[in-house]
Design a protein that fits this description.
homodimer; about 325 residues; alpha/beta; UDP-N-acetylmuramoyl-L-alanine:D-glutamate ligase; nine-stranded mixed sheet
């Protein structure tokens, strides 16, 4: 493996999370879409922040969380995403680099602030996300470093990238470069409403551009417009080389190479905050895959990584995941 | 109690904390003064941040933590401190206001950034703090709102305020206004090295300006230049109307009105991060005092508040302290 060779490069919306505890009343009073991600504009972001309780700021972004997880597992990882040259952007850049990730995308200098996601965690550990995309709206094809993508075993894309209008061009450019270099392309469907917003395009992507698909039960049912998980699973199998479908506490199903593995969720003493569960599942899975493990083992590492991140506040691992995997799988 | 009447106004360095886990090796390799607070300049802050692992940003500042604690206990509280008009300053202002605290000090517009404290939490839950004071250096007498101070039962000052040169004038102005209005003045000695830096002035303060003193064992021994706690306790009793001296897991001693109470520390299932222990002890004590409780009960509320904050990462309460006190003391 040459110096430039890496395991996974992630492309996503570079976001700093602002986490706060909130009660059910707050969610109702402010008309929040419980358990999902809603895009908000600057005035709404300001109004919601004014109403929000004291917060904790921590780097987030779906694909960025995944990439930080891969680094925590010992994988070599890179990231492409757009922050602004402001203090929040500096925090994002520091955190992902200090997690051991290559991140060299130029910052926006247009004055648009770095993206923030206000996350309200309710007493049932569920999170409700409200994202102001800010500088993420400026991510475009020029931000894709062809060398980085060509040298990554897997290029991982978050479905949320379909929201900012320029980013889908970046997305398609990266997929093309990856495939030309004989690499794999992975996609996470991100959120059921995100699937609703871009269904036709997502179906085309999954059928024609994506080798490895990540989705939860709600997202994959929305994609194929079917009412139950088994129908969604069958539809997926026909189109993706590998798919990992997650079902919260019901575990996950992994398909590929003609195999279907049904996995239990890893045990968690107390679920504190489900933010990042899907992101870290993808991290564990892709780390397993790029380090040459079989699909069942990939699913187990994925479940362990997801279990770690829901056991505390915030969407990036607090425990070095290498140690966790070593303790459980040897 | 009129609308303008409040329980406690705190004056301190308005700081946003950047918390990170670090091992002992890191502390040694970077020459950090373990368990204490060190002042650092901008280049050192930059170098240390570059070396630091991924962080969590959360509003801090010693007196600000205390004031947020008082609000969490149900007290009416105000705060005076200097942030910049940058994103970090916006976070500080949002968090303290959303905790229910009055905070109207004008932001600095000089371009100097809001203060940050890098806190390294080692596996033994001890914290090592490195503070870049930034905009705090601009807090001066003009920032003291005489009306706010005159309407507060207690004006609470952190010893750290003696570090920025202009702030001590603000400090003395506030003490004068408080006493002229027949109110009490409280001081926390903050840190043993802070006491070393300003010992002569702190002795004068304690003897002539302060009614209620907070200090831990190391700080109060440094103040009176004595080697053991009992000697420090006796020296303190001669000069302060009320004193609360903390001794970590050994509990605390409260003196005043001719009484001496020895209190056990409140139980904690697992100490995660000692950041804010002293700040929240002061919060509990001052809340008790301003709500008319006896000294022993003040010490118990103080111990409960301190126990809550060391049971998680970060220096402000995660659980509403009103509920905690209600559950324990009724």
């Amino acid at each position: 493996m040459s110096d430039r060779e890496i395991d996974v490069v992630g492309i996503g919306n570079a976001i700093v999370d602002v986490l706060s505890h909130a009660d059910e009343e707050f969610v109702v009073a402010h008309g929040l879409a419980r358990g999902t991600m809603t895009l908000i504009d600057a005035p709404r972001a300001e109004a919601l922040y004014a109403a929000m309780g004291p917060g904790v700021e921590v780097s987030g972004g779906s694909a960025a969380n995944t990439i930080a997880g891969i680094a925590s597992l010992g994988g070599k990882a890179g990231y492409i995403g757009k922050v602004s040259n402001d203090q929040i952007g500096g925090i994002f850049r520091h955190d992902i680099r200090s997690a051991g990730v290559r991140f060299d995308t130029a910052a926006s200098v247009s004055g648009v602030p770095t993206a923030r996601c206000m996350i309200f965690v309710t007493p049932d550990a569920q999170r409700t996300m409200n994202t102001f995309l800010g500088a993420c709206l400026e991510l475009g094809p020029d931000d894709i470093d062809p060398d980085l993508v060509a040298h990554a075993k897997v290029t991982y894309l978050e479905g949320y990238l379909w929201d900012p209008p320029l980013a889908k061009q970046a997305f398609l450019k990266a997929a093309r470069i990856a495939h030309q270099a004989g690499r794999k392309v992975a996609l996470s469907l991100s959120d059921p409403f995100c699937v609703e917003r871009h269904r036709a395009e997502f179906v085309d992507l999954v059928k024609n551009h994506v080798d490895i698909l990540f989705a939860n039960e709600h997202e994959v049912c929305a994609l194929w417009q079917v009412g139950d998980f088994d129908a969604a699973l069958q539809a997926t199998r026909g189109h993706c080389e590998i798919a990992a479908l997650t079902r919260s506490e019901k575990g996950s199903v992994v398909t590929g190479n003609g195999e279907v593995h049904v996995l239990d969720a890893a045990r968690v003493a107390k679920v504190v905050d489900t933010t990042g569960a899907g992101d870290l599942y993808a991290a564990g899975f892709l780390y397993g895959l790029t380090s040459g493990r079989g699909l069942y083992e990939c699913g187990r590492i994925a479940s362990l990584a997801a279990a770690e991140v829901i056991s505390h506040f915030g969407a990036r691992p607090e425990t070095p995941l290498t140690e966790l995997v070593l303790a459980e799988l040897g």
